[in-house]
Amino acid sequence: MVVWVANRDNPINSSLGVLSIGSDGNLVLQANTSQGLLPLWSTNVSISSASNDNIFAQILDSGNLVLAQQGSHDVFWQSTDHPTNILLQNIKMGLDRRSGINRFLTSWNSENDLGTGNVSLRIDPNGSPQMILYNIEAKLWRSRHWNGIKWSGTPAAQPKDVFKINFVNNKDEITYQWTVLDPSVYSLYGKCGKFGNCNPTINGFNCTCYPGYEPISPQDWDLKDGRGGCKR
Q1: Domain locations in the chain?
Q2: pLDDT tens, 180-220?
Q3: Alpha carbon of residue 209 to chain centroid
Q4: What distance in Å separates the CA atoms of residue 219 and residue 206, rounded to the nearest whole number?
Q5: Which of 95, 104, 78, 82 has its CA nearest to residue 173?
Q6: In CATH, what class is 1-82?
């Protein structure tokens, strides 16, 4: 499962790629071509020469890719400030007023093309903030406003819900994040496939098809594998 892509609009066209830390301390992705190494993507942050020693890149257990320095708590760059199409748990979406970074989700071009698509999900910080789904600039859906517990117009939380939503609106940030209350719950996208519904409050196999749909492979569903999804 792909949860983040660095060079989604500038892919490597072969298996010859090099990921390294450059002389300026940045993490750089290059394609190995007949003309030599061709830079395709970089973290592109300013790192002083005094801080340029012992720079490393690491993928944390949270799924966050960070560029940092050994022996320091400073993080020069992190992938969670540049989300693609999936919001992992405990990762913030929205506006950081201190840095000016606005984190939002953008669809793939297609099922097999990881390039930036036309559909995006953003927090509109104007007035009383709300979540808006766009197709380019056209509004497809909005959540109404945050009422202190949930986005107005969305279903209320149930006693057996396994997710917790956290929304912050202060002088430093307007952000939204979610977390799983029960760490044993499988929470990643795609467990029940296309047109499949995952209901973690059901014990055992918790995939069901939406009304009017049936499993594409009943045999797989009998084996408690719902990744194939559903069809009309």
Answers
A1: 1-82, 84-187, 196-231
A2: 887 776 667 778 999 998 877 667 788 999 999 999 999 99
A3: 25
A4: 16
A5: 95
A6: mainly beta
